[in-house]
Amino acid sequence: MNLEEILRQTRTVAVVGASANPARPSYGVYRYLKAHTDYELYPVNPTITDIDGDPVYATVADLPVVPDMVDVFRRYEDLPSVLAEVLALPSLPKTLWLQQGLFHEQVGRDAHAAGLQVVMDRCLKVDHAQLVGR
């Protein structure tokens, strides 16, 4: 499946590592997605409780749904534990999206082997704006 198909078929997105700090890239991507898409968004960050009044969940396991996509803004060394959280869900998301600057070969292989589509080192905001945001 190509990027445009992934973006068009996605309905729910967990943003892991979402931030309430406007200086952080994850904040900009979250705000873009909220303003310019129909996605149901679920920010995930154990250190904050809301982003501009939207509730933030401590872990992926705390989400009220299994999202179609898990969009990850975390450090390289945290990616295996993020994947472990995702694989522990009652059913699997369709896509694991590692944001621009994140590429982890083993996480990608393991996610793909589990049945997830894997996108690495790409910005969800940029790709959405270019491919479906028109």
TrEMBL record:
<dbReference type="Pfam" id="PF13380">
    <property type="entry name" value="CoA_binding_2"/>
</dbReference>
<feature type="domain" description="CoA-binding">
    <location>
        <begin position="6"/>
        <end position="102"/>
    </location>
</feature>
<dbReference type="InterPro" id="IPR003781">
    <property type="entry name" value="CoA-bd"/>
</dbReference>
<protein>
    <submittedName>
        <fullName>CoA-binding protein</fullName>
    </submittedName>
</protein>
<dbReference type="InterPro" id="IPR036291">
    <property type="entry name" value="NAD(P)-bd_dom_sf"/>
</dbReference>
